[in-house]
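ok so i was messing around last nite and threw this chain in just to see what happens. nothing serious, just curious
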Amino acid sequence: MDKFLIEGGQPLTGPAEVSGSKNAALPIMAAVLASDGPLELTAVPDLDDVHSLLGLLGTLGVHAEFPAENQLKLVVETTRPHVADYDLVRRMRASICVLGPLLARRGRACVSLPGGCNIGHRPIDLHLKGLAALGADIRVQQGYVVAEAERLRGNSVFLGGPFGSTVTGTCNIMTAAALAEGRTVIEAAACEPEVVDLGDCLNQMGARIQGLGTPRIEIEGVERLGAARHRVIPDRIEAATLLIAAAITGGQIDISPVRPDHLVAVCEILEQTGMRIEQLATETVSAPGQVTWRATAPDVIAPTSFTALPYPGVPTDIQAQLMALLCLADGISVVTDKVFPDRFLHAAELARLGARITRDGPTAMIHGVERLSGANVMAGDLRASAALVLAALAASGTSTVRRIYHLDRGYQRLDGKLNRLGADVIRTGDSRGPSPPHWDTGTTARPDHSGHRVAGGQGKNPRSRSS
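result:
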């Protein structure tokens, strides 16, 4: 199983490219199941999760082509399959996004209950409640969700939950409602940019969706969805991770493309720590809203406090990385996660590097230390792995970060990007572990007749306050 060997203490400098958003690409890819025409996507990140979903879509009759790096063309060749098997769905939670489009287009869906990162209890009851409100007959048996409906009917759907709205649930209901008869209103809809990006793509397919980016989404059902071409938005979580990489190593990184409107809350917290973020380049006609930022680390990291909340708040997906930064702050910081209150697996591993963190329920108190020291650590989930890599980059000496297969699920070759900025990260492992993902351009993948997919240096630590 692959691991990273990281020699810390090097300030990161230079340009860094942000890949397309994983959390936007996956539900958009799943939406092809609801369409009659091809879906052509650009800026698709080359990730394990993307390839896992392609494998699942292949079993559901979808033919995939890869015209060029980070480009993807999807075409539904048969609408007969309706079973999303456990062996594929268990790999990632986002696989549940096939439920809505599969049901809406084929009238029946049998989808295994999803897997994913161990970050706390994440039921799909709101997904099922929403689809039932649209007229689906739903039951759970032997670990599968079985949903049936000749045609869904528009209705009012409330998606609020105890920890806010559901992003994947909003994606599922919105895609299903696009083909429902009549008008659907989603109340307490998720406002995340990834939901907006899916809605924009569905509208290009012929859907009639209004209110994207607000808690109230209105959808007028249509008879069919057709072909579309769409560019996936930049990954705001990767952009934020790179911003923190500059701050925690005492460096300066030029990051592009970024959407400033997607990162307002994160920038507010980083600026409270003393970081400087300035815009270098404006948007272009080909990429409206996307700019280049220069991120410059503070001389001394100031402590701050924040609460992870649904968008437009600080994302729970960046909570761990910000905590890594605050481990080196000159004072005490407080971090609360109200989206996933149990998402603190990284705290104990950061302590192995010398961090001082105490936890009380959904809140952690971080007592900043002068320096971190290299150690052996183990990632427990995707964002925790990023936090441990960031901390290791700032630590003195060598760190080993294990279970980086989590990282490959959500960051496109992050080790290569960091090394181009001056980091010293070596990927090593044995032949039994997964290899980093690779976009095999010029190839295709299609389902076979059984429905299974077949494939045609060490330096002075700049973050020590005594330096």
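not much to say yet. The two ends are 36 Å apart (CA to CA).
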